[in-house]
Amino acid sequence: MAPNFEYPKKPQNTVKRYNSRATYDLGAVHSVINTTSVLHVSFAPSPDEPFPAILPMIGVMGSFEYPSSGIDEPLDCYLHGYVSSRLMRLAREAPNGLPVCIAATKVDGFVLSLTPNSHSYNYRSAVLQGYARPVETDEEKVYAMQLITDKVVAGRWENTRVPPDNVEMTSTTILRVKIETGSGKVRQGGPHDEPKDENRAEITDKVWTGVVPVYETLHAPIPSATNKVKQIPAYLDQYVSEVNKSNRETALNAVNEP
Amino acid sequence: MAPNFEYPKKPQNTVKRYNSRATYDLGAVHSVINTTSVLHVSFAPSPDEPFPAILPMIGVMGSFEYPSSGIDEPLDCYLHGYVSSRLMRLAREAPNGLPVCIAATKVDGFVLSLTPNSHSYNYRSAVLQGYARPVETDEEKVYAMQLITDKVVAGRWENTRVPPDNVEMTSTTILRVKIETGSGKVRQGGPHDEPKDENRAEITDKVWTGVVPVYETLHAPIPSATNKVKQIPAYLDQYVSEVNKSNRETALNAVNEP
C-alpha cells in the first residue's frame, strides 16, 4: 500500500491542544471539507481594518491538472459563493493570491459527562490555509462548477440544463485555493469523567451520562410550483437515502471509542 | 411595541450582494449564533503570518451585567473551546482585546433549479465582529459556563455536578467578545429560474426542480458504560424532542417564500 500523504506540520497548523486527536492525513482532512455543506472562509479585508472577515461559501477539493486524483492526494480547494467584489479584487490583485483560511466542522454528538467541564462534542474538523486566485479559463471554471454542483447533490450536473451559456460563465466566479497547510481534528467516544466524581454515588446516582448522536438529515425532496417532472428522479432519491444512512451511521459509530 | 434593535451598518458589515436577504436585527442575528452547535472564530495570529486562523468554538450570547436581557437586546458573545495558548495570549495582551470575527451558518435546504447557476441553499447565517478578552472574575466565568452548558442541552447545568471546583475554575478559559458590528443573511423559498429555461419544454420535461429540506437531527440519548441513571431524564428527553421538532419545522417552513 502506498504511504498516506500528510500535510507538513508548520507552526501555524500544528495542533497543540489535545494533539492525540489531530490528523494531517490528506484523505481525512479533505473528506471533512467535501462532506460539509458550508465552509467558512476567512481573510484580511484591508490593512486599515482591525477585524478579519468570514464568508460562508460552498467548496470542494479537486485537481484540474490531475482530475483523476484521489481524495487522499494533493488537491486544490475550489470555492463558490456570494463572492464579494472586495474579496474578488483582493484575490485578483495580490501577487501570489489572497491568503485565506478555510474551516469545516461536523458535529457528530453531544458528550454528556458528570460535570460541565468534561462535556464535549464528538466532531470532525478541518482547517486549510492557502492562496486564493480567481479561476481564469472557461475549461477550469466548468470543471469546478460541475464539482460544486455535484457536491450539493451527486449526479445533479448532468441532470440539469448544461453547459452554462456565455452570460452564466461570465457572471460566475470561482476561486481556486492552492493549499499550503492543513490539519484536522477528530473526537469520538463517550464521556471521560474523573475518579473524584465517578467514585461518588450521590453524583453518579443522579447525573445521566452518555452521548446524544447528532447528524444532518435530508428530508424527501419537495417539488417546486413549476416542476414538471412527476417522479422524483432515481439519482436524487438514492442520494437522499445514501446521505441519510451514512450520516446516521457516522454519528452512531462515533459513540464508541475507535 | 418597542422598536427592534439593529446593528449599525458600517463598511465592514454592510451586505452588498443579494442585500434584500440581509438582516441587521439583533434578535435574528443572535438566534442563529445561539442555535448553532459550533461557531467559527477567526483572528490574525501575528503580523508575520500571512494567513488568518480559524478555530471551531462553542459560543452563546449573554450579558453578565444585565442577565435578564432578551435575545434582541445588546449582548456579548461568550466563547469556549480548545482555546490555544496563542489565542489566549493575544486576547490578554491586546490593549482593547483581540479583534475577532465570529460566523455561524445553518443550512435549511438544497434549492435545485433548472440550471446549475441558479442552484442555491436555503440558509441562515450570522457574522459578528468584536474584541475578545478573557473573562477574569469567577462570578462571570460561572455565569458563562452555565450559559454554554445549557446551550448544548437546555437544563443540563443544574442536572450535573456543580459548582465547578477550584481546579476546574482555573483550567477553564472563557472569552467575552464585545460586539462592534453584526449582520445576518436569510434565504428562503424555492428555485428561481429564468424565462430562457422555464419556457423550454425540452428542459422542464427533463429537469426536476424543488427543495431538499435539510436539518440537524438529535438521536435518542445513548448511555455511557458507567452511567447509573436507568431512565433518560425528562429534561433531556424533552430537549431532544423539542429540538428535532423545531429543526424540522424550520427547514420545511423555509421551502415556502416568506
Summarize the structure.
2 copies of one chain form a homodimer. With 258 residues, chain A is an alpha+beta fold.
General description of the model:
Chain A is an alpha+beta fold. Chain A has a single domain (19-210), classed as Electron Transport, Fmn-binding Protein, Chain A (Pnp Oxidase, Chain A, Roll). Helix content of chain A is 26%, strand content 29%. The first copy, chain A, has helices spanning 26-34, 85-93, 138-152, 166-171, 195-198, 201-204, 234-253; strands spanning 22-23, 39-43, 53-62, 76-80, 98-112, 120-134, 175-187, 210-218, 222-223. Chain A is globular and about 70 Å long. In chain A, 46% of the residues are buried. Chains A and B meet through strand 2, strand 3, strand 5, strand 6 and helix 3 of A and strand 2, strand 3, strand 5, strand 6 and helix 3 of B. Strand 9 (222-223) of chain A pairs antiparallel with strand 8 (210-218) of chain B.
